[in-house]
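Researcher: We are triaging several targets before committing to wet-lab work. For this one, the compound of interest is flavin-adenine dinucleotide. I'm pasting the protein sequence and the ligand SMILES. What I need is the predicted three-dimensional arrangement of the protein with the ligand bound, expressed as structure tokens, so it can go straight into our comparison scripts without reformatting.
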Amino acid sequence: MVPGEVCVLGAGIIGLLTARCLQGRGYTPTLISNTDPRSSSSAAAAGIMLPTFPFHPTSTEFKRRLRWMADSISYLSKYREGQFYTTVRHVEFFRRGVAEGQIPADWLFQSGIYDRSALVTLNFDVDGFGEYAWLDVPHFDTVSLLEAFYADFLEAGGVHLVQTVDRSTVESVSASHVFNCLGINAGSMFGDHTLEPVFGQAIRYPPSRWRFGLGMGDFFVLSSQFGFYLGSPFIRGDGVFGPKRVHYEDLSKFLRTTLPKAAAVVGLEFDGSQLGPPLETVSGIRPFRPGGARVEVERSGSKLVVHNYGHGAHGWAAGWGAAVEAVTKWEGYLHGIQGLKGPRAAIEGTSDWGI
Ligand SMILES: Cc1cc2nc3c(=O)[nH]c(=O)nc-3n(C[C@H](O)[C@H](O)[C@H](O)COP(=O)(O)OP(=O)(O)OC[C@H]3O[C@@H](n4cnc5c(N)ncnc54)[C@H](O)[C@@H]3O)c2cc1C
């Protein structure tokens, strides 16, 4: 396939890893996006790999997410430990049976990842939360990694065109093979209106002496050598980019009032007044698709479009696994293998592809 025949729309974590995967298989994709990767929603993420997927653990989607997460951890861990990633002990508080994003805690235990023996039931509530469980999880420095992927992409001969695409201009993109990794804009451009914006915001502080993650409903803290990260409301339906004052105040209140109480419960003597002044407030739109992420091939006009979007609050956890799956499906399509009967078969769903 000649250079310029394949392009990747979107330079967030999904687009960059898809482009890197294509390069790894010998293709020369062009990256098209209207922002630098460091300005994407992906750069606002905490970079924690938690299996709090809002799908039942027996569902195909949950299992697929777990597989993608394992693939992503293994790929991202090739980057240097200490510089790009570390491991943190993360404590998740539950409202006596309900976890972040209204996921029943039981689902997490059923997944086998959270160990039920780690569940601690309190005989009092901390702001309505009466149980917690802990887990050691990988934590990736999202900004450094985006910079590293982007540098690797360019070093391998990749070209990035800074350009906005819409429904009409996508047809004029010169490539005939288009990977759609446009985050929250990925759906509407190709007629999928099931994609929902879920706004999130975080405040970054300089690194502190604490090393832990702590999740409590909508809020969470991640403190490592990469910095102290305080996030993030899950505001469904808010597709307006940019940090908002109201969330800054909510986050600051959580830091001052609830967090010290919760930290004390798990044996941390946390004192927020020892944090340096905030470095920056960041925000992003999580592209959530209630029916599950869309990773499939579709013919659209004169283009062969490979969709890779809808990863919601877990784009980093899904990133590499989903990229590999998208590229593998596309190659399968090109080579007419895996029992594919024609273009419609790929559009109809995922079962033909054995996931
Ligand atoms: C506060 C917060 C914390 C998070 N924490 C975590 C976490 O700890 N772990 C985790 O796994 N996930 C986390 N996430 C979720 C994760 O950030 C998302 O799932 C991920 O960013 C989605 O990546 P993406 O590449 O699909 O989208 P994006 O990062 O939004 O990238 C989309 C790209 O498409 C480009 N684009 C869009 N429209 C156009 C257009 N019309 N023309 C040209 N270019 C366009 C954009 O410029 C951008 O480059 C968090 C999200 C937020 C907001």
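Researcher: Any quick observations?
Model: The chain has a mean pLDDT of 88.
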